[in-house]
């Protein structure tokens, strides 16, 4: 365990009779890139607002550098936020926007000039001090907003869907830039997005959220390869999900056939759900296939064909293949035992919590 900088302990946020955060707990280490990933309304912004001190937790504790900060006002916390809409002052130029917080703190004029210059260099806007905000593009405004946050040298930078207003190309460029910036500054970033590709590309660690809970946390590879339940599997990446039965350790049945797999530790004949990623399926002849499917449609996606098929039980399968298939024909699908990801079926919340705890041990 590295150097812990933030902890949430059983944090609840309640509005009227709605719990928008339900006992959320997590630890954040210094110097890493974290992402809160989840659908709109799951509570991502609420977590950032509690961390920044813009709103209170209804119960639970928030720690920063070992100190409980529930009652510390926002301006005394060592975090800064980059908001979705940038929240720049439109009537001020770039320098005044970036310098704003330092002027309030009564930093000397000379010091401010140096810090603003450094911050603008960091976000690749050197020499833009006198430019008006109204004369800048969306991507440039985004950079000014980041400069305004990092000029205060926070220990933690919170970024609330900062790229969502940008077009695809600029968005991809900014993903690289933010990642590099985080490495160069060496401070902790907590980045919020509802875009799973963005989360996978940028993060050291992802917290997948749904309905006020953190459902799974881990590295992008952990989350992608070992989704803990149906929600994570379908939210993070394209997935084929079918129901099946865990016959015994390392042996699972689905679509009426038995397959060797690498999962164990479940009850005999326990009902399960099976995840197979489209890129882990390979098309072969009907005779060689572990599963036989009929090709319904295919789309050319640039790097691969996205092929939709149906098996004999009516389940849909998506396959990513570099080779074309012929619509209407029967083909075989092959995959390796380790490509089969087994998830417990219809787990109750209590069972799910118990299992999460057993993973943490
Ligand atoms: N001030 C508020 N009063 C009542 N409900 C709120 C308030 N702020 C947020 N919520 C509700 O809390 C839930 C989580 O919101 P939010 O954290 O903004 O989600 P996200 O950022 O993941 O989209 C939503 O259902 C939202 O409507
Ligand atoms: Mg939000």
TrEMBL record:
Entry's Gene Ontology molecular function annotations: ABC-type putrescine transporter activity; ATP binding; ATP hydrolysis activity
Entries under PANTHER family matching the protein: SPERMIDINE/PUTRESCINE IMPORT ATP-BINDING PROTEIN POTA (PTHR42781), SPERMIDINE_PUTRESCINE IMPORT ATP-BINDING PROTEIN POTA (PTHR42781:SF4)
Domain ABC transporter: 6-236
InterPro entries: AAA+_ATPase, ABC_SmlMolc_Importer, ABC_transporter-like_ATP-bd, ABC_transporter-like_CS, Mo/tungstate-bd_C_term_dom, P-loop_NTPase, PotA-like, PotA_ATP-bd
CDD domains: ABC_PotA_N (cd03300)
Catalytic reactions on record: ATP + H2O + polyamine-[polyamine-binding protein]Side 1 = ADP + phosphate + polyamineSide 2 + [polyamine-binding protein]Side 1
Sequence similarity: Belongs to the ABC transporter superfamily. Spermidine/putrescine importer (TC 3.A.1.11.1) family.
SUPFAM superfamilies according to UniProt: MOP-like (SSF50331), P-loop containing nucleoside triphosphate hydrolases (SSF52540)
Protein name, as recorded: Spermidine/putrescine import ATP-binding protein PotA
Entry keyword annotation includes Transferase: no
The organism of origin for this protein: Enterococcus rivorum
UniProt KW keywords: ATP-binding, Cell membrane, Membrane, Nucleotide-binding, Translocase, Transport
This protein's GO CC annotations: ATP-binding cassette (ABC) transporter complex
Domain of life, per lineage: Bacteria
Known function: Part of the ABC transporter complex PotABCD involved in spermidine/putrescine import. Responsible for energy coupling to the transport system.
Complex and partners: The complex is composed of two ATP-binding proteins (PotA), two transmembrane proteins (PotB and PotC) and a solute-binding protein (PotD).
EC number, as in UniProt: 7.6.2.11
């Amino acid at each position: 365990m590295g150097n812990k900088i933030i902890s949430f302990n059983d944090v609840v946020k309640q509005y009227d009779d709605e719990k928008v955060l339900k006992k959320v707990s997590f630890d954040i280490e210094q110097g890493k890139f974290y992402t809160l990933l989840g659908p709109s309304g799951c509570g991502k912004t609420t977590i950032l607002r509690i961390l920044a001190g813009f709103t209170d937790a209804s119960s639970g504790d928030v720690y920063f550098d070992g100190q409980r900060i529930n009652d510390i006002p926002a301006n005394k916390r060592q975090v800064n936020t980059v908001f979705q809409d940038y929240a720049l002052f439109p009537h001020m130029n770039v320098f005044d926007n970036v310098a704003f917080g330092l002027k309030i703190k009564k930093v000397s004029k000379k010091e401010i000039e140096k810090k603003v210059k450094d911050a603008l260099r960091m976000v690749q806007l050197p020499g833009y001090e006198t430019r008006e905000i109204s004369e800048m593009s969306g991507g440039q405004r985004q950079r000014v907003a980041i400069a305004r946050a990092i000029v205060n040298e926070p220990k933690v930078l919170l970024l609330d869907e900062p790229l969502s207003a940008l077009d695809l190309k600029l968005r991809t460029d900014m993903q690289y830039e933010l990642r590099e910036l985080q490495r160069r500054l060496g401070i902790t970033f907590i980045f919020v997005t509802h875009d799973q590709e963005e989360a996978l590309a940028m993060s050291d660690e992802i917290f997948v959220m749904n309905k006020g809970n953190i459902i799974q946390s881990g590295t992008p590879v952990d989350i992608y390869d070992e989704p803990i339940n149906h929600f994570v599997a379908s939210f993070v990446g394209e997935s084929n999900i079918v129901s099946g039965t865990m016959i015994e350790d390392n042996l699972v049945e689905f679509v009426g056939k038995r397959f060797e797999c690498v999962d164990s530790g479940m009850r005999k004949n326990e009902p399960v759900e099976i995840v197979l990623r489209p890129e882990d399926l390979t098309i072969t002849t009907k005779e060689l296939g572990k599963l036989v499917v009929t090709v319904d449609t295919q789309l050319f996606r640039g790097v691969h064909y996205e092929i939709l098929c149906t098996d004999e039980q009516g389940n849909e399968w998506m396959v990513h293949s570099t080779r074309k298939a012929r619509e209407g024909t029967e083909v075989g699908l092959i995959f390796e035992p380790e490509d089969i990801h087994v998830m417990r079926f219809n787990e109750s919340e209590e069972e799910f919590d118990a299992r999460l705890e057993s993973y943490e041990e």
